[in-house]
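Box 4.2: Ligand-aware structure prediction
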Amino acid sequence: MIVGERNTGTARSFLQSSWINAQAWLPALCGSALLLASPYVFRLDGKPHSDLLQFFGRFHPVLLHVPIGLILLLPALEIAAIKRPGLGDAAEFVLRAAVAVTIPTLALGYMLAYGAGDTGETVLRHMWGAITLCIFLFLCIPARRAWKAGAHVLTYRLLLPATILALIWTSHQGGSITHGSDYLTHYMPRVLRRFFRMDIEETNAGSFFSLHIYPVLDAKCVACHGASSARANLRLDSYSGLMRGGQDGAVVLPGRPEASMLLARVTLSPGDKHFMPAEGRTPLNSEEISWMRAWIRAGASPTMARVAGVNIATTAEAPPQPVGDYSALMPDILRFQEGQGPKLVAVSSKPSDGLILRTNDVSSSFNDAQLAQFQKFAPYIVEAELARTAVTDAAFDTIGTFRNLRALHLEGTSITGSGLAKLAPLTQLTYLNLSGTKVTAQFASSIRNSSHLRHLYLFNTPAEAGDKAGRITP
Ligand code: HEC
C-alpha cells in the first residue's frame, strides 16, 4: 500500500515535470511551425510583388551582420563561462538578443526576395538555411534552460554547434547571391580547382554559343536570370541553365525555334507584359534574334562552331563621319537654348560630333514649318527627335537635307511614309523609328532595303503586319 502510494507520487511528479518541459518547448515549436509554413503561404514564385517590400528588404544586407556577430559570440561566451561563471548570464542574454534580431533579418530577406520576384536554387537554399537557423535558435532557449537545470544536457551541446553550422552555410548561400557562386573559388589555385573538378567546361571557347549566344544573354538577361536572381526559376548564365529551362519547363527546344519560349518571349511586342527583357531593359536587336533563331534551328549545340545560314559580318559599323564645325552658328544655337521651344544640343564638346534636335518640351505644337527653320543647321544635325510632334510627310523635304543624320525618331506622328524615299541619300542614317505611325508596308519597303539602315522600328504600324517581329535589320 505504502509502496503503491509512493509509486503514484513519482508518476505524478514525472508527469508534472514533463508537462512543464513541454510548456517550455511549446513556444519554440510553434514558432518553428510558423516559419516552416510561411514559404508555402508566400511562395517565391519568381514574380515581383511590390516595390515597397523591396525598399524595406534592401535593409536585409545591412542588418544581417548583427545576428551573425551575436550568434558567433554565443559559443565563445559558453566556453569562457567554464572559467568565469558570470559569463553564463551574458550568454543567455546574447542568445535572446540573437533570436530577437534574427527574426526581423529573416523577414527583411524574405521581403526582398518576394518583392523583387527572386527565386532560384541559391535564393531558396539561402531561405531554407535561414529558416533552419532560426528554428535552431528558437530551440536553443529551452535547451539551454534544460542544460542549466542539469536535464537533456546533450541537446544544447549538440544544438549550439548545429546552429553555428547553419549560420555558416546560410551566410555562404547569401554571399553567393550577392557576389556570384564562384566568388570564393574564383582565385583558387588551379591544382585545387582540378582536385575539386571545377574546370569541367561544357562549351568550348570558339563555339557559336560562346561567341554569339552567351554574350547576348549575359548582357541582357543575366541580371534577372543569373546566380543572384533567377526570375521564373530560369538561369541564363550557363548553357546547362539555359537548357534546363524555367518554371514552365524548357525554353529552348533544339531544332524548333518557333516552339521555343526563349525566342517567343524576345519577339513579342515590347509593350506585351511577357516581353523579355522585362522592365524596359534594352531589347535584343534583330541581329541577335536571328542568331538565336538560327542557333536553335541548327540544334542548339554548345560546341558547334558554325551555324548554317548565318554569316556574321566581321566588319564593324563604320565610325560616324565628322560633321564640320558649327561654331560660327553658335549665337543662333544658343538662342534656342534660352527659349521654351525646341532645342539644339551638342553631342559632345567637339563641334565635329554634331547636334541633336530636341522637341520633347514642345512636341505637340512642333510642325513642318518650325522644322523648316532648322534647315540652316542641316549638315550639323546628327539626331532628330521628332517623336509625337505634329510633323507630316512634308517634313521629309527638310529632313532629306540633314545629310549627316544618324538617328531619326518619328514614332507617334501622323506620317504615312509617302516621303520616306527622300531619306535615301542620307547614307549615315542607321536608326529610324516609325513605331505608332500610319506607315504602310508599301512605303516602308522603299526604305527597308537600304544598306546602311541597321535599326528600323515599325511596331504598331500598318507595315508591321508584313513583319511579325516589327523590327528588321537588313
Ligand atoms: C528586369 C528583369 C528581367 C530581365 C532583364 C529579363 N527577364 Fe526574363 N523574366 C523576368 C521575370 C520577372 C519573369 C517571370 C514573369 C514572366 O514570366 O513574365 C521572366 C520570365 C522569363 C521567361 C519565362 C520562363 C518560364 O519558365 O516561365 C523567359 C523564357 C525569359 N524570362 C527570358 C528572358 C530573356 C531571354 C531575357 C534577356 C533577353 C530576359 N528574360 C531578361 C524578368 C526579367
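In the box above, the bound molecule is heme C. Residues 208-297 form one domain.
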